[in-house]
């Protein structure tokens, strides 16, 4: 009986030893083959013996990374959104600048492109600050306009920046003519709330007429678009009547403008 | 057959734990070797054949994640450890918890020595390698191994009690 047990144990050991020898041989073979074959062996092991554990490992690792990935994606999303917004902004700016680039300077005066860098504080917009000054050969009284229409004139000049008095300033008066009938009038701001035109009661002016600068004031050259007549009022006075106009260049949306490097004419010199 | 499936499942779980969880619980570059613990448990409980097989599979798994130039080194190391420990199978020699821990420590050192000799990186500074690489990893492995052994011994004691009550 004891001998039998011993034989069984020996057989069991021999079987174990045989398997052990086999595994050792396989291990040594794997160590001794060339690296490119080793790679093939690894690929084969991954796709056969360890396919299931490997796929589970990948899945678990993927789940583990999801939270981290989510945070990263959220950050990236915010960044991309910001970039999209910026791109949209650049596209609008690009469109605007393109217009400025192809703008035809019909007055034969040199023009300077300037950027609006500030507004006057307070509820009424009467002046804006531009980033051009004496250093850019900007002087008092130079007209400021955009491709849409007239903006105003330079009212104060500093070395690197200037103040522009807008048409909407109640102290501003601009001489204009109707593009259609050539009738002359004066554009002004009533309490900074509404732009109006003062014109002769007998003048041929109708709603929808476009008004351009007349060139009579000595500041603005002739022909810069100013606004469109939106309403005409009947006046008690037999001499003058008034009308509402809408400016062609909305001051609120102003970002860039041109300054015409034209010195003021006789009016200023006469005043002096 | 049932035992084979059970051990295959345990290997499967340990493989996932070793590759996914262990990298997150390593302390100062020291990580526990769960596959070695499984190999030691298998070898002690079921002998050299099972130990050798489990060791080879565990080593192969480590090999495929290790640099491809060293393919086969882990397989050899784990396989030898599994076979060697199978010689002190529990059905012939009764080991208490302390002895099992000692066996685990020896198994870990044996595995590391075989592995580093296989990849031919042990050259001059063996004490430094033992101090910086072997020791921290062994301590971590032994701590976790002790927990496993303790849980298994509780289960075995329960089985013995049920058997005695049956008698």
CATH architecture heading of chain B: Orthogonal Bundle
Corresponding CATH architecture of the domain at 111-263 in chain A:
Beta Barrel
Which percent bin holds the helix content of chain B?
over 70%
Beta content of chain B comes to under 5%
Please provide a written account of the structure.
The complex is a heterodimer of chains A (272) and B (167). Chain A is an alpha+beta fold and 272 residues long. Chain A has a domain at 111-263: Thrombin, subunit H, CATH 2.40.10. Chain A is 37% helix and 28% strand. Chain A has four helices and twelve strands; from the N terminus they run H-H-H-E-E-E-E-E-E-E-E-E-E-E-E-H. Chain A has helices at 2-32, 35-47, 51-101, 266-271, and strands at residues 111-119, 127-130, 143-145, 150-157, 162-166, 173-178, 184-190, 194-200, 210-213, 225-233, 240-247, 256-260. In chain A, strands 1-2-5-4-3-12 form a six-stranded antiparallel beta barrel. Chain A has a six-stranded antiparallel barrel with strand order 6-7-8-11-10-9. In chain A, a hairpin with a 4-residue loop joins strand 3 and strand 4. Chain A starts with a helix and ends with a helix. The two termini of chain B are 27 Å apart. Chain B has a single domain (2-16, 30-166), classed as Arp2/3 complex 21 kDa subunit ARPC3 (Orthogonal Bundle). Chain B has 167 residues and is an all-alpha fold. The model of chain B has no long low-confidence stretch (mean pLDDT 81). Chain B has helices at residues 2-21, 34-65, 73-86, 97-118, 126-166. Chain B is 77% helix and 0% strand. Chains A and B meet through helix 1, helix 2 and helix 3 of A and helix 1, helix 2 and helix 3 of B.
Task: Produce the secondary structure layout.
The complex is a heterodimer of chains A (272) and B (167).
Chain A: H1 2-32, H2 35-47, H3 51-101, E1 111-119, E2 127-130, E3 143-145, E4 150-157, E5 162-166, E6 173-178, E7 184-190, E8 194-200, E9 210-213, E10 225-233, E11 240-247, E12 256-260, H4 266-271
Antiparallel strand pairs in A: 1-2, 1-12, 2-5, 3-4, 3-12, 4-5, 6-7, 6-9, 7-8, 8-11, 9-10, 10-11
Chain B: H1 2-21, H2 34-65, H3 73-86, H4 97-118, H5 126-166
Helix pairs in contact in B: 1-2, 2-3, 2-5, 3-4, 4-5
